[in-house]
Every structure is written in C-alpha cells, then in structure tokens.
Amino acid sequence: MNIVRAGFYASIATAAKLLAGLVILKLVAWMAGPEGVGRLGQFMSLMSVLAVLAGGGISAGVVKYVAEYRHDPQRLSRLLSAALWYALCASCLIGCIGLLLSGQIAGWLLGDVRYQGLIAVLAAVQLGIALVNYILSVINGFMDVKRLAFIQVLGSLLSIALALVLARWLNLYGALLALVIGQLLVLAVGLPAWWRSPYFQRGMLRMRFDREMTLRLAAFSVMTLTSALLPPLVNIAVRDHLAAQFGWEQVGYWQAVSKVSDAYLLFLTTAINVYYLPKLASTHARAPLVLELRQAYRYIMPAVVLLAVGVYVCRDWVTMLLFSADFATANSLYAPQLIGDVVKIASFVLSYVMLAKAMTRLFVASEVAFAISYLVLVYLFTARFGLVGTMYAFCVNYVLYLVFNVIVVRRYLGEL
C-alpha cells in the first residue's frame, strides 16, 4: 500500500464524512443563520475535545504500536489489553464529569441551559465513542485502509439519514443531537467489520492493566491530547474574543470560512494520518524515512495547492451552496485562509515525524507555544485589521510552525 492508494481510499471515506458534516452545516445555516453556525462551531469543538478524552487520547499511540508490534503476537496482545483498559477508565471518568457539569457546560459554551440534555447525551455515549476510537485505531495500525474506509463511509451515510430525520422532528436541537448519536452508528458498522478481518482475535477485546504498555501509551497520549485538545480550546477562546469584539454574526462568517477550509483539507489530513503515522512509526532507517517524506511532498503539496486555488475561484458558489446568501460577507476572508492552509499541510507532514518517533517533550512544548502564539497574533491582528486579521494570524502562525518543523526534522535525520 502506497500513499496514492491509501489516499484514494482515505478520500472516499473523507468524502462521506464531509458530506455528513456539510448536511448538518447546511441544516443549521438554514434554520439558524450565521449565529447558529457560530454556536454549532462551539458544540463541535466540545465534541472534538470529548471524543479525544473518551479513550484517554491513545488512538495515535495504538496506531503507532500496532504498526510496530503486528508481527509480535505477545507484545501486541499486551498492548491491546492495556489500551482497552486505559480507554475504558478514561471514558467512564469523562462521562461522569460531563453528566455532573452538563448544565454549566451548556450555559457557558452554548449560552443556553436548554441544551443541558444534549450535553448529557454526549457525556453518556463516551464509552461507545472510546470503543469506536479503539477499533478504528487497530484497523489503521494494520494498515487495512479498505476496511477502514468501508466503516467510515457506511457510518457517515447512516449519520446523514439520522440527521435528516432528527432535524425535521426537533429542528436545530435535532441536528445537533444527530452529531452525537451518529458517532455510535460507526460502532454498529465497525464492530462486525472488525470481527470479519483476518487479524481479529477475541483476545483483542480483553482488558488488563500492563504497567509497561500503559506507560508507553500514557507518554504517547500526552502528545495526542495536546494536539487534539489545544485547537478546539483555542478556537473557543478565539470565538469568544471575536464575539466580544464584533458580535456572533461576524463569528459565523469566520466559522463558515474555517469550516470550508477544514472540509477540503480533511481529504489530505486523513490520508496523512491513515498512511504516514503507521508508516513512519515502523520506519527506522534514514534513507526510507527521507524517501517517504519526499513522496509526501511530491503528491500532497500539488494537491493542496490545486484544492486551495479551486476553492478560491469558486468561493462565491461554495458559500452559497454550503450556507446561504446571508454569508456573502465571508467571501472576503478566503484568500489569507487558503494561503495558510497550504503552509499548514506543508508543516503537518513534517510534524508527524515528532509524533511517530514519540518526541514527547518537544512535541508538547511546540503545540503549546504555537497555540499561544496564534492567540496572541489573533488579538494583535484583529485589533489592527478587523475580522480578517484572524486569517492573517492563522497564516503567519503556520509559517512559523513550518520553519520550526524543518529545523526539527533536519536535526533528527542528521542524528540517524
């Protein structure tokens, strides 16, 4: 399996997930306008945070170590038993906290305590989400990209049907509820698909504490949690700042462009995650590692440039199709955002070396530092340029992050 074939299957899965997300986005834009889309972003950020916390943030660690241990049955069994135990404990803890604080979270994040029931449902399904993360990580670690794509496609199609039904029945509340329940539909598809795989063994569902493997996962978990939790938390802070400065309608314009950006980049980031994380984790020599990085830039960078140019040229049509005529003001925000997207992908390819090689301290320090720098840049640039300053901050921050990653990877390769 090479990056082209992996990218093909990942693109199919991504298209299905993208379609499901856009259906929700269109429903919310139609029912609640720019303000509703702004609040949808807050709820999706919360979902992103809890989805990672549900399994203790070990998904990338499971992918890495399954890729390393798949030819060593004894160590693989120990790893997976420890991973399932870790995920169960974390999901139960997060679920209980979410249930206890559901009212406060609804009031703080969504500005309306009527959404308390929605937050409670999200907390209650954390165990199921943790199991979904575990199953998909094991499949990804074995680089079974076709099976992974099948699960994600079918799960996304079921989520679309659910969203249409619940939105018609419960309006905005139903659309948000579909986002939560839709994650469990992936479990309904993924579990039987995993059972039928040639590498599945019943022992993979056995839980057991293993000190060595738990420590390995915990160290790796710190990196994953940092990279997964900081962006939604930072985005929450950015939305609050923009809402205070410009109002929630302006937040909706920024959120709309950000969602378009996330949507088309999902094709590339999924391919990078599905292929490069297990590949780089199992590659230890300098020459093949350099070859993989060169192939990444050969195939991925032309793709991201073409996609970014396409989105810019069609920005009026894209905004109208995905949102409504009320979002026309957002069209002026695309250019700096799309330039930042290209730089973002260039930096992501290199940053996976830190993740795959478990450079825990350096990775965490860099994630924290660049999250802070982004917030600082947002405050500085919005004060000078207005709402578009948020996009300028995004672009400049990723230029700095790319330079940092080039230095780190060059140093790592020089030590091999």
Automatic annotation (TrEMBL):
The keyword Membrane applies. Pfam families: Polysacc_synt_3 (PF13440). It is found in: Cell membrane. Signal peptide: none annotated. The chain crosses the membrane at residues 7-31, 43-67, 79-101, 113-136, 148-167, 173-195, 215-233, 253-276, 296-313, 333-355, 362-381, 387-409. It is a multi-pass membrane protein. The keyword Disulfide bond does not apply. Its main location: membrane. Keywords: Cell membrane, Membrane, Transmembrane, Transmembrane helix. PANTHER family: LIPID III FLIPPASE (PTHR30250:SF30), PST FAMILY PREDICTED COLANIC ACID TRANSPORTER (PTHR30250). This is O-antigen translocase. It comes from Dyella kyungheensis.
